[in-house]
Amino acid sequence: MNSKYDNKFNYIKQNKIRNQPKGWIHTNIGEILELNYGKGLPKRTRVDNGNIPVYGSNGIVGHHNIPLVNKKGLIIGRKGTAGSVHISKEPFYPIDTTYFIEESNNLSLIYTYYLLISLNLNSLDKSTAIPGLNRNDAYSVKIPLPPLAEQYRIVEKIEEEFTRLDAGVSALKRAKALIPKYRQSVLKAAMCGDLTKEWRALHPDVEINKEDDDNLIKLDNNNNYLFPKKWTLVKLNSISNAIGGYAFKSNEYSEKGHQIIKIGNVKMGRLDLSVNPTFISKVDYKIISQYLLNKDDILVTLTGTRKKRDYGNIVKIKDQKNLLLNQRVGKLVFTDPRQSHFYFLFFQTDYFRDQFFESETGNVGQGNVSMKSLKETIVPLPPLEEQHEIVSEIERRFSIIDEMERIVEESLLKAERLRQSVLKKAFEGRLVSQNPDDEPAGVLLERIRAEKELRAADGKKKK
């Protein structure tokens, strides 16, 4: 359950008491909880194969063989991921970037966990460098305290509701994970000519051959792409001019002028001009004439992390102005600009990406694809009219997938709002009914105070 519901809710307004349920009282964190400091445990001194989880401010960071806390408890981020809340249902070791709370017989540990994550404790951070949480600030936060028996009923109901929500969220996430596969399936069907079979039958002057196995050719690659035989297969440089970017010098950068488009600006399918914007104002005319980006140019990133394969990103220039191409980004200018959008879509297929990465060079960390390899990529060349029909078929199907993605995203947000609503009701006393036979929270608070005083006295004796 570590961080499973570690979302940032903020329902308990400081210094504002809502309608108080019978048997409840409002107090503050310092009255019922003690935030103890964790203790340093460098990595070199940990026993990695131990069974004791070691907690930092962002959760489990390793293991050890000896606990600092020999019971269940909560861990709160003190430095770094300040205000984060984690729960350990076994002995644990909180390091010195955290506070910890020991389990108490007078409070439900899980109720306390849900309550604390609802408080958005990171909003108390006043630091200007490393985020930090001052425990005196936390102690002053107002909180509701229900009877102990009701705390357990609240936890049971929260987890019942969250289990139901989690099942729905899991289904939505599975659907979301399939969306890229749906897109790739559409692209493959389109780029193999499957989506335009009927169109070709109605346009014999463009495609006269009947589609059957004898009229398809197959390239030897993992995707088993089959193309109509009348489609020509060509090298990319036969239908486009491929240009590598220019190595602009950093000492020539300025605050305005032409923006230099670097690898980080080219995302898959979109251009992000907000990433590390870099400009140059004084540029030689010859450089501008060769490296200026124009409408319908297609960009390809040529360098990235080899293991992740986080490059080979494709974007098509729309109406952006005053952009210059940086090194390790390739530009493709098609002889017939009307083909640009077809190939923008084709370059997103596994067929193209497999070819692209086949020529990858570099060391273990960094991968590179040369402009020469890019130019020699084999691509299909359907008739221009069919290219346009393929684009229309893809975009029609993509619009349906986009709508499905929008519905999934909205449903995920709705699930998160429902989760928040459950906690809101819980801490306003509206999630479960009150039992008049429960011990009042005022009596519980006195017992908590007595327990804290006893611990403080024991601590002084040990010193």
Overview features:
463 residues, alpha+beta, Helix Hairpins, four-stranded antiparallel beta sheet, 35% helix, 19% strand, elongated
Task: Describe this entry's structure for a reader.
The protein has 463 residues and is of the alpha+beta class. The protein folds into three domains: 1-145, Adenine-n6-DNA-methyltransferase TaqI, Chain A, domain 2, CATH 3.90.220.20; 148-224 and 383-433, Helix Hairpins (Orthogonal Bundle), CATH 1.10.287; 232-381, Adenine-n6-DNA-methyltransferase TaqI, Chain A, domain 2, CATH 3.90.220.20. It is 35% helix and 19% strand. A four-stranded antiparallel beta sheet has the order 2-8-5-6, with helices on one face. Strands 13-23-19-21 form a four-stranded antiparallel beta sheet. Strand 3 and strand 4 (59-64) form a beta hairpin. The longest helix is centred in the middle third of the chain and has 44 residues, at 148-191. The chain is elongated, with a radius of gyration of 31 Å. The two termini are 36 Å apart.
What do we call the CATH topology of the largest domain?
Adenine-n6-DNA-methyltransferase TaqI, Chain A, domain 2
* CATH level 1 name of the largest domain: Alpha Beta
Largest sheet: 4 strands, antiparallel
Radius of gyration: 31 Å
Count of DSSP-assigned helices: 11
Helix fraction bin? 25-40%
Q: What is the SS-derived class?
A: alpha+beta
Oligomer: single chain
What distance lies between the first and last C-alpha atoms, to the nearest angstrom?
36 Å
Domain module tally: 3
Number of strands: 25
Strand content: 15-25%
Tell me the strand order in the biggest sheet.
2-8-5-6
Q: Overall mean pLDDT score?
A: 90
